[in-house]
């Protein structure tokens, strides 16, 4: 297979152009020269200092026998028009090497799964394809020879065809013990094999500066190395094949997830790498004994679907965007507007549909590729992504019955005697009357239509939701009249709306309206059009104020929900929810953790909404090295010192009062009322000292564990990270960074691992200091 220097991979700047194999075979004398050939003056005069260094190498020992170079497979990664070549793990490289030998002249493509089966490599085409997300194919090479220029920071692999030529020339030189063999590139660059340990690449004369007269400055040779073992590169050990747990990670607003403007894919890759490192350090014995494998983290991307061509929202927003401060407005349209989109019924439906369908698709694909997987699944949401998951989990069904069974509409629909035209006019959708009448759709058949049916008729998403929501409400209202739907047990109706003798109506709803609204909240989210009464719903009032959309169902029951830097508490409060029922839990998920950085401006707590009568401090997440950060330890030490000083002063004062109260009283006159008062005051003062000391000591003791509702099975929910020492100097400077720190936080990753493996019965080991 031929490669050129202009191919993807960034070699165009690191290595010269390479002829194809046919050209090499047609002109063998041009490409390889023996030491008897005359080396061009440019090469001979290139760097005398380098020539002198040749003499320092001990060549007196006999030539070592030729050994074939050991190849290693690399893949290309592009970022901002810069290319870097990264090695596969040794395990993956061996699999690719064995497959390349097995391919031979076969016409069929051979596909090898690598990197935890998140990528597939097509061996014949030398391409690497992502499995779980959209990403362009990247080039793959079987690498044996490497090159680094003066200004390069790392070695770049030569194309495979030129590496083969270099290896043949090296074999001849070693076998015959004849060196200074040179290979020329079509553009004039030359590689010279001076000896087994020194091989250089020189630029042609045309690329040199004409005014440079010093021979040592005319060319700056680059370094050539043979074999991956001779270059400074870190080869990963690879990942365990066994997967213990699967985690889906949903991003927040915008396409970028950190200050380096990286995508959710890159950030999840970092989080996965951190978890693998922590498994090696904190679960070393379990890993050596084969008790654990690894945790797989997969990204869930919904931003591209919202801002893609399917919705056309970007084009609509761009038409009304002012031309000034274009970069700032572009950032606002691409990032901050996601918050408003989620509060829109139309685009909120698109977002939750995308998140749910993407998670279900990834789950199905993962189970297909890992047929032996029998572990649990958890979900992680960052920023707005945590709110999306919160609303999704709130509206999941536990499988006891389907939503349609709770909203029967078997009888012919009676919309107060309205016709189809009157109904559409009331909804402001009379322009779709002809479309429905063309398909002979009347009110009764309209009640039987699903979203897909209306979509097939060409009705947009917004009007479809209006029609379905209106029909659903009328079906439920009619079901109450016929007795097909009853109030759930324990729900109380609000006061009826009655008229007094003066004709004035009192506050509240009628019994029928109340039952209608209550039953609706049991089966779907609450519409803004209606007033949700109380908190005593089966979902604990969580659905209060949510946009009325059809929440899709996940294909599995999540074990744990982790929220990073989450605004859930703020959104629930803005929706009008003052308190979460302590008995409430997600229908299909029994564990929930709210993880945040203390300086995160987007994060809010949740425990104060559950336990309102106790002021609970959040749980401090331990440092991954098994201790508090130094500045926090110093702060605690100063607090203890001040407390000890306070106790010592109070103790001294108590001793002084006791000494004073023990003065001999035999010679004193009988105690009168005034003296009794004085003695009583002394005892009261002594009691105050004792009480103060006891209260001071009580402050040092830890608070007993308090049961915080059922969202996390009675355990604590709010967990706060420890800020770094530099962050404590000015919390405002690091506010934005604090909201984006979770992807690289080892403390956060360790908390997830501990929660996952504790439920598997595998205890975490204390790291060695």
From TrEMBL:
Positions with biased composition (Polar residues): 495-512, 694-703
Pfam families noted in UniProt: DDHD, SAM_1, WWE, WWE_3
Domain annotation WWE: ranges: 59-142
Region (Disordered): 1-54, 489-512, 686-706
SMART domains: DDHD, SAM
Domain DDHD: start-end pairs: 554-758
GO cellular component, as recorded: COPII-coated ER to Golgi transport vesicle
InterPro entries the record matches: DDHD_dom, PA-PLA1, SAM, SAM/pointed_sf, WWE_dom, WWE_SEC23-DDH2
Gene3D superfamilies according to UniProt: Transcription Factor, Ets-1 (1.10.150.50)
SUPFAM superfamilies in the record: SAM/Pointed domain
A molecular function (GO) term: phospholipase activity
Annotated family: Belongs to the PA-PLA1 family.
Protein name: DDHD domain containing 2
Lineage: Eukaryota, Metazoa, Chordata, Craniata, Vertebrata
